[in-house]
Amino acid sequence: MFELLGITPQALFGQLLLGLINGSFYAMLSLGLAIIFGLLNIINFTHGAQYMLGAFVTWALLHYFGLSYWWALPLAPLIVGASGIVIEKLFISRLYHLDHLYGLLLTFGLALIIQGVLRNNFGISGLPYSIPPELSGGQNLGFMFLPNYRAWIIIVSLIVCFGTWFVIEKTRLGAYLRAATENPTLTGAFGLNVPLMITLTYGFGVALAALAGVLAAPIYSLNPNMGAELIIVVFAVVVIGGMGSILGAIVTGFGLGLIEGLTRVFYPEGSAVVIFVIMAIVLLIKPAGLFGRTA
Questions:
Q1: N or C: which end of the chain has fewer CB within 10 A?
Q2: What's the half-sphere exposure (Cβ side, CA atoms, 13 Å) at 81?
Q3: What angle do CA 294, 239, 243 make, to 5 degrees?
Q4: Confidence (pLDDT) at 17
């Protein structure tokens, strides 16, 4: 069949692998956006810059402190997540009772500032970061060659995404978080520190973006625009899945990555716009998104 279509199994599965890797980043980034919007009601346009910061902190930890990838894996999300907590306390906490537009404009401005500072210091040519030796090489599956680091990205993203979904949707902690955002006064009456929970939730969403940046560092060129190039697609993924839907962000992220990979095989010219075409169709049929709830 592949020969009739002029497509070899290696080409097909290679593009599907690439689509699944892209889908892993789409899922992790859209998950962070969905958490921040679903629980805090803030459209976080800084998310792409925070993803980029995760990659740059990974590079800085190696070149300035000699800390390897394995140290950066926990440290970079913690550092960028802490910066997110500072942003939430100083700026975003003042906008919770205002229109979404104020949060969008604030976070968009912060993203431009972060990108501008890094562009001024590092330029836009890109910085290299090597794959850790433990994850170099790959496996010959017969029908395709699977690089070990690509497999690592997919496994980590699956564990992080569905682990986060389980905590938010199926545990008592998740119930407290949802209660704190839906009825903060009543939740606070039960002795829970609602402002702290909201701040930590934003920090966690930012840390997810930074973790995606750590995973991206060894396979993408590190430059200040890497987040801006990705965030528009991620917002489309969130809209398709349903704004604020945790499960929708995960399933749609991985699914659209695979669809994008298939499009590169059968109609390469449409691969850059296929996600936006799907978004337009979904909004026509179900404006709240595939997993979204209508008000």
A1: C
A2: 21
A3: 50
A4: 86
Give the span between the Cα atoms of 128 and 111, in whole angstroms.
23
**pLDDT exceeds 90 at position 73:** yes
Q: Are 50 and 227 in contact (CB under 8 A)?
A: yes
Separation CA 30–CA 241 (nearest Å): 9
DSSP notation for 17-65: HHHHHHHHHHHHHHHHHHHHHHHH----TTHHHHHHHHHHHHHHHHHHH
Q: Is the confidence at residue 52, as pLDDT, over 50?
A: yes
| Paired residues of 138 in beta bridges | 147
Residue 218, amino acid: P
Helical residues (DSSP H) of the chain, grouped into ranges = 2-5, 9-40, 47-65, 69-90, 100-122, 148-170, 172-182, 184-189, 194-216, 226-241, 246-266, 274-285
Q: How far apart are CA 283 and CA 243, in angstroms?
A: 12
pLDDT in tens, 122-150: 888 888 899 999 999 888 877 777 889 99
Lowest mean pLDDT among 39-43, 186-190, 247-251, 285-289: 186-190
Please choose, from the candidates 227, 250, 229, 249, the residue with its C-alpha nearest in 3D space to the C-alpha of residue 54.
227
Q: How many C-beta atoms surround the C-beta of residue 70 within 10 A?
A: 11
Nearest to 51 by CA among 132, 138, 111: 111
* Residues belonging to the chain: 295
Both tokens of 140, joined, read 């010959």
In the chain, the amino acid numbered 180 is A
